[in-house]
Here is the input.
Amino acid sequence: MFPHHREREQPIFSARAHVFQIDPTTKRNWIPASKHAVTVSFFYDANRNVYRIISVGGTKAIINCTVTPSMTFTKTSQKFGQWADSRANTVYGLGFATEQQLHQFSDKFKEVKDAARLAREKSQDKELANTALTIAAPQFSQDLSDELQSPPVMCVNGPEDKLFRSQSADITLSSEKERIKKMLSEGSICEMNLEAELFTLQDSNSKLVAALHEANANVEQWKKQLAAYQEETDRLRDQVAELEAHGGQGPSDLLKDELTQSLEELEALLKAKDEEIHILQSKKAEYHEMEHERDQAIHRLRETEMRNSDLERRIQNSEQNLNNSLEERDRMDSEIQRAIEILDIKIFDLNDLRQSLVKLIDK
Here is the structure.
């Protein structure tokens, strides 16, 4: 049914993103559904007035979601968004390379959701009829003929023992191959987890870099304001000292109180600015720590790639050994078959000789 649907569906929008699915057990952690960034496309079926989101990784459908009016695409960060699919009982997450791509996908999702709502309102009866027609799936049956039955096992001395030896060799080689494939799949899963972690660290790194640039700009501005406040404070202090020196010849006591209050407010503002500068300096230390964690993640990813390369090399060697063993087994089978044919000929000759000797004895 899937290829048939793809023929009558038309793509209307595509974007590349890292695909994640929510952990069905914890409902909190994200599980990467693709090893690399894949194409995520919106498709429209004009016959059924249905919109779908489809993403294929290799030969496997990573996303196959029908858009409904109740769905909502939520942007949880500058480059990440998610939506829930109640039919599949899961939550999909998409990580984009840029913030602009996330906005484009979010706008298209809202547009498709509105179109799906209008299509449902206008052609609800037609959609129900089409759904009823597509519920019934064709049943297929297959007859087994006597010619497809396994051939009888030969029981002529040597070949029966040869058959058991071949089956044992097949089982051993198959188990070895499955074990190496399992090792490679474990390495691939570890690599995907590290790539997801690296993607998250890169996203956090970009946020911290932007915050650091903004903080540096604010620090420079605050330093200029701090210098201006200090100059104003010194000027007010000089005025207060001058007023105190002149006694009653200067402004009144009310003016002195106002100047003192202004001085206290400036000192409180200077204290608050100092605290903000200390907070920004602590954030700068956190940024350096995140950079260190990112470097460690990159190092672990490179180690994983090296292990995967080693596993691939071992699989190639195992496959080569497997092919050599199969060739050797085929060669031994040919030699045994040839020996059996020679023995059959010798037995036939001995039988003729025996009959000849019996005739001679009878004479």
Q: What stands out?
A: The helical segments are 2-8, 99-122, 124-135, 158-246, 253-362. The longest helix spans residues 253-362. Confidence is low (pLDDT under 50) at residues 1-6, 135-166. The chain is about 65% helix and 15% strand.
